[in-house]
Amino acid sequence: MSESPEPGGGTRLVINLVGLIGIVFGVLPIVRYLLDLSIFELTTAPYDWLRLEGAARYLPPAMVLVACIVVAYVLEQRAQRD
């Protein structure tokens, strides 16, 4: 008796990729700004051209993080409904 694979494997991949993007371009830049670590310079490259100072430099990574959380939540809800 073989079990059928769970449907929606492609959706699960997309949810995982959205989560990865949220971690790499949302969480790690915030950690870099807080701890001033040069090891995470790659994660802040998309935001460096903005030349933001102070607390304003946290806005782009925070927006990416929130957007990724919302997209992953919506995709997860849609996958559960199907």
List its salient traits:
82 residues; mainly alpha; 0% strand
Please, could you describe this protein's structure?
With 82 residues, this protein is mainly α. The protein has three helices and no strands. Helix 1 packs across helix 2. The chain is elongated and about 45 Å long. The two termini are 24 Å apart. The model has no long low-confidence stretch (mean pLDDT 89).
Summarize the structure.
This protein is an all-alpha fold and 82 residues long. The chain has helices at 9-35, 41-48, 59-81.
Molecular shape: elongated
Distance between the termini: 24 Å
> What's the story with the biggest beta sheet?
none
- Summarize the amount of helix as a percent range: over 70%
Figure out the total of helices.
Answer: 3
Structural class: mainly alpha
Query: Can you give the mean pLDDT?
Result: 89
The total strand number stands at 0
Binned strand content: under 5%
- Poorly predicted tracts of residues: none
Give the ordered list of helices and strands: HHH
Over all CA atoms, what is the radius of gyration? Answer: 17 Å
Keywords: Membrane, Transmembrane, Transmembrane helix
Transmembrane segments: 12-35, 55-75
